[in-house]
Design goal:
The chain is α/β, with parallel strands linked by helices. The protein has helices at residues 20-37, 62-73, 94-102, 118-123, 141-155, 173-184, 213-219, 241-248, 252-257, 278-281, 288-307; strands spanning 51-56, 77-82, 108-113, 129-135, 162-166, 188-192, 208-210, 222-225, 263-265. The protein has two domains: 15-140 and 292-307, Aspartate/ornithine carbamoyltransferase (Rossmann fold), CATH 3.40.50; 141-287, Rossmann fold (3-Layer(aba) Sandwich), CATH 3.40.50. The longest helix has 20 residues, at 288-307.
Length: 311
């Protein structure tokens, strides 16, 4: 089989649009860029003639900073846009906003938007490469790629690895993208949490549910802890935060009681003392900071590979 040298897609809208070969290519390209960002001189001229606009219609810290750092490491020209200080507040439409930015000769758009499908919608109406940095509770493809890459870095391969995703799965774009990504790479994925926080369609994705946290942790190689997304909840999904923490919070006592060592992950932001205690988040079984570092390399890889498709 001929080895893939460019992505099969023009945009990065979601993991569901990628092939396994695309993911492998992104991982291999990220290997190269990880070496670059660990050198004394961390910048390369790969995207010197490319202009990238970061459009964030939702608040973000890690993702926005990670993309901007990746873009600058590749020597791209960067435009940052925040909807709270733009004409969007005056009623301007998404397409008008983006077309006005593209008229400044922008080549790529990195967009986070509260509405599911916004990135796909934009890709159908504007002439630029679109990277989805999170669309509502739908997908967050670069987070899943950096999570999969971090597991690969820890274990050498994703095939056959058992991953449990714990917490607010129903509101998590990270969970959905990770399910798509990890399964495509041969991992076995299950979810754990109160049934009110598990989407009813989960079994149609080939994902089983474990309701007891201790059983879930004994089964897995890697536990991915999710925060409770109270900002997306308009009804009460469980009696109290305290009760959730008692049943589904991961602390050092529970971690140490397991019959084997497992790896702990978290996409952030962490609510310490709720879904995960500080001594677990900061323990030697946690690769949370590795995820953050790998995020820059993965986003450099995605930007570089998509830029290679600019005509």
């Amino acid at each position: 089989m001929t080895k893939m040298t460019k992505l099969s897609t023009k945009h990065l809208l979601g993991i569901k649009y990628l092939q396994k070969e695309d993911i492998n290519l992104i991982f291999e390209t990220a290997d190269h860029f990880k070496q670059v960002i660990n050198r004394p001189i961390k910048k390369v001229p790969s995207l010197r003639d490319i202009t990238i606009a970061n459009l964030f219609f939702e608040n973000s810290t890690r993702t926005k900073l990670s993309f901007e750092l990746a873009e600058r490491r590749l020597s791209a020209d960067v435009i940052n846009f925040a909807s709270s200080s733009s004409s969007v507040t005056k009623g301007e439409t998404l397409i008008d906003t983006v077309n006005n930015i593209l008229s400044m000769k922008v080549d790529m758009v990195v967009m986070r938007h509260p509405n599911p499908g916004a990135a796909y919608f934009l890709s159908q109406h504007v002439d630029a490469k679109i990277i989805n940095a999170g669309d509502g509770a739908h997908e967050h493809p670069t987070q899943a790629l950096l999570d999969g890459y971090s597991i690969r870095e820890k274990y050498g391969d994703l095939k056959g690895k058992k991953i449990i995703i714990v917490g607010d799965v129903i509101h998590s774009r990270v969970a959905l993208s990770n399910i798509f990504c990890l399964q495509k790479m041969g991992a076995i994925v299950k979810v754990c949490g109160p049934l009110t926080l598990i989407p009813k369609y989960i079994s149609s994705l080939g994902v089983d549910v474990i309701t007891n946290l201790k059983d879930a942790l004994e089964w897995c190689d890697v536990a991915m802890m999710l925060r409770i997304q109270l900002e997306r909840q308009n009804i009460k999904y469980f009696p109290s935060i305290r009760e959730y923490t008692l049943l589904y919070g991961l602390d050092k006592a529970l971690l140490d009681s397991l019959s084997k060592k497992i790896t702990i992950m978290h996409p952030g932001p962490i609510n310490r003392g709720v879904e995960i205690s500080s001594d677990v988040a900061d323990s030697n079984q946690s690769i949370i900071l590795n995820q953050v570092e790998n995020g820059v390399a993965i986003r450099m890889a995605v930007l570089y590979l998509l830029a290679g498709r600019i005509d």
